[in-house]
Amino acid sequence: MKKDALYPPFSPVLIAGILTQPVPLYIIDKVLEHITSNLQKNHPSILERLEAIENKKFLISPTDLPFSIIITFLKDEIISVSTKDADIETDVRIYGSISSLVKMLDGEVDGDALFFSRELIVEGDTEALLTLRNSMDADDINILYEMLDSFGILGPIIEKFIKPSQNFSNAISDNMNLLKNSVLGTVIEELESQEAYIEKLNEKISDLQKEQNKQKARITKILKDIKNDK
Amino acid sequence: MINDNKISDKTTNDNPKQERLEIVCPAGTPAALEVAVNSGADAVYTGFRNETNARNFPGLNFSPKELATSVEYAHANDAKVFVAINTFPKADNQELWYQSIDDAVAANIDAIILADIGLLDYASNKHPDARLHLSVQASASNAEAINFFNKTFGVKRVVLPRVLTIPEIKKLNSEIDVETEIFAFGGLCVMAEGRCSLSSYITGESPNMNGVCSPASHVRYEKEGTKMVSKLNDFTINEFEKFETAGYPTLCKGRFSTDENDPTYLFEEPTSLNVIEMIPELVDAGVLALKIEGRQRSKAYVKEVVQNFRSAVDSFYEGQDIINDLGNLAEGQRGTSGAYVKKWQ
Question: Choosing among B241, B269, B299, B307, which should be mutated to test the A contact, i.e. which has the most A CBs within 10 A?
Answer without folding.
Answer: B299
